[in-house]
Amino acid sequence: MFKRKTKNGTTAIDLTTINEPSSVITEQIKTLRTNINFASTDRNLNTVMVTSATLGEGKSTISANLAIEYANEGLKVLLVDADLRRPTVHKTFGITNQRGLSSWLGHQIKDINQVIQPAVGNLYVLPSGPKPPNPAELLGSELMTSFLAAAGEKFGIVIVDAPPILPVTDSQLLANKVDGTVLVVRQNMTQKAVAREAVAALKRSHAVILGAVLNDVQSKRRQNGYYGYVNGYYSDGA
Question: What is the DSSP string of 97-128?
Fold first, then answer.
């Protein structure tokens, strides 16, 4: 990924799906998008949460690239930064984070459309907003439930970049508010026991687990990391 200057002078991160549309990484993101589409044949998948077991596994990068690919498919896409503790989406797209999701959930603004910002093509971004004192309470609220339902009807798909599952309860509270969840795990970082614990936490939250993304896979032919999607990746014998 490469940094660039946006029109307003802020520094953003160019995503691989934009800069390298024919790369292995972009092809894997397209595969992820396709597999999620296949998973929606017998259910509505208007809202999809992307999370990870712990910090540093690449969930936000995958969320942003996946949102770009859905927008490239022609859908009107909303990328929601629901990581109210460690937001990154505004940095990725070089937009302001002075107001956002937390501002609306905290009743500091009345109309959430005021903080939904256009990003690239058909993609719109809802930044997290300032860090609130009560992230879990806001994300677990009925107001968040109604927002996701309304956004799912207004947009072709809503991608929710959620906090990691294990450090905090935020994503467990979100899990039953979305139509499906994708879990990101990182090769040579995520321990199997930790991954199983994350899956168990999602199941306790009544999440619909669509599958897992194995991130930063290394191959002998290619040294750069890339993503692999595995439906039902975890099993008792994993």
Answer: -SSSHHHHHTTS-S-GGGG-EE-STTEEEE--
